[in-house]
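Quick one:
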Amino acid sequence: MNLELEGKTAFITGSTAGIGFATARALIKEGAFVILNGRSKEKVDKVVKELQDEFPESKVSGLAADFLYLNEIKALQKELPTIDILINNVGIYTSGNFFESTNADWQQQFEVNVMSGVRLSKYLLPKMIDKDWGRILFVSSECATLVPADMIAYSMTKAAILAVSRGLAQLTKGTGVTVNTIVPGSTLSEGAEQFLENAAKKESKTKTQIEAEFFTQKRTSSLLQRFASVEEVAHTITYLVSPLSSATNGAAIKVDGGSMGGIL
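Output:
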């Protein structure tokens, strides 16, 4: 299927690894010009080179910025060209006892996970509305409703994203711009791989055993009963930011393997 993304320019925050990187690859395959983002210039340059080697005919570049710092965000905005597609993917998290979490833990996750998308959307959405076409997509998480006890602050940010996205979508009424949220479930990102490896070493088990136990003991609501691949999530994102998804606006689309339940 031709997703009609050729010639579109996409900016993906937090895209040097995980879902963001897989999405960059998927968009490049569809002919889009992709601008990567990471916290360090060295990492961004390395990943840009990797993609240029893999896709010699592609248009790919990168901009480094840490969304915890306003000065870096402002500098980034000045460097952005005209953007057709904004994917607010960047996210950080802490895991631990709620009573031991600090104000800084909460504030930093809110700044990066929520305010990065707010600030970029505030800057780019008016431009998209002016040209009557654009796509903004936020990446939330199943944690928005499952809320693991050791990730309350992170879950709060992922729930907040849903409200921000829905609110912004209402500003696009009658235009060719859409704003949606994708809600992934447990996904085999680099972080999840590390979790499995560490747990396997600690418990003298295989990664396969640890993954199976995670779904039989912790994420019991999952119908998939395995981690989704980053590519599976990226495929859904790629469709949602394409011209073909024009009738989907203000929506939260689950790619959660059924873990969140419900009929909607």
